[in-house]
Amino acid sequence: MSVKEEFLRLLKEDEEFRLAAAGLLGYGEIIRRLDANENNVQEILKEIRSLRQDFSKLSEEQVRLRQDFKSEFKLLREDIDKLGNRFEVILGRMGRRWGTDLERMLLATFKEALEKEGIELAKVQNFTYMDLDGSITGHRGRRVQVDVLVTDGKLTVIEVKAFAEREDVDHLSDVVGYVEKILKKDVEKAYIVAVNIERDALDRAEELGFKAIYGSVAS
Q1: From CA 179, how far away is CA 148, in angstroms rounded?
Q2: What pLDDT, on a 0 to 100 scale, did the predictor assign at position 84?
């Protein structure tokens, strides 16, 4: 009997042999699968190492980009600040020019009412004084600016506003005091000229003895 035939016979007739053979066959399969899994694990570990390297490179790139961004942002911010400073200077110059032009236009709008008060627009002058030492206003470097008119030795002060509020009337009161100190001359009359004036501001002007010339009263 050949070895093969003997082996097959034992599988059929000998239960103990059959179990042992089955165990060996199963063990071999386990070994084969473990070997296969080992190869898979090695491939996975290789991929992990590759991913770790890629991640390290990415982190380094992010750091570099962050540093570059900070530098570029700093330069951009400096440029914006410079541009902003230039814009403020230009806007300030334009604002002063527009402010003067607006005052002249508003005075012209109320020309008839002003002339009834004896105010000739051609003689109205813009008065500006810089209180360098603060002796006049109590604030060093404060600018005093108002329209004035001198007729027959009498001094008139005129404050022009598009919209006059109570604070503007109080400001006019301060300006009157400043002008008297600067020119060493009493203010005979004070006017607030406005397109619109608040009721509270109108009452305040009457209380302080100022004349209000306006287009309409806002509640």
Answers
A1: 9
A2: 53
